[in-house]
Amino acid sequence: MSGINQDGTLKKIDKPKATTEAAIAASTGDLQSLQTVKHTFSMRDESGNIPLIWAADQGQDQALEYILENMPEEDEMKQDTGINVKGYLGNTALGRAARGGHTKCCQLLLNRKDINPNICNEKMQYPLHFAAFKKHPETVKIMLDSGKCSTLVKDRKGRTPAEDTSVEEIKEMILAYREKTGM
């Protein structure tokens, strides 16, 4: 299912709810419950999300860190279960954390060697676009400081993250990074 209507507008879609024990524990930060369901960290719930995405979405940095530490190495690299996995509407854990301005979660994810911060969702929204559009300067800063984010990615309207924010500080930060790095 695409998140974009034929006329180019975004579809309005209800936000999903965590439905498995692991997803609920991740979204609420219940570390005790997470310890008992480690073997299910790569399993998707009804929405298509894995616990990693739920923890990032809700800003549960301790749960996210626990999941990252206990994710089987072979799963971390896989496209369908790893750190870059796309869940509901094609969102990655980094995309959900950036959208919510969950800076610590973004930092935990960006510290991973295999993270790809330049993956868009079904609505052609990238993590850096989310952080810029939702007015999260600290999140934008750590994303740029990671050296992994492209400022040249374009959304469905052809805008870069610098063009997709109403906060001058964020725009200047992104443009300065682009001038310095070329990306």
Automatic annotation (TrEMBL):
Keyword Nucleus tagged: no
UniProt-listed InterPro entries: Ankyrin_rpt, Ankyrin_rpt-contain_sf
Keywords: ANK repeat, Hydrolase, Repeat
SUPFAM superfamilies documented for this protein: Ankyrin repeat (SSF48403)
Pfam entry (one): Ank_2
MF terms in GO: hydrolase activity
Protein name: Haloacid dehalogenase-like hydrolase domain-containing protein
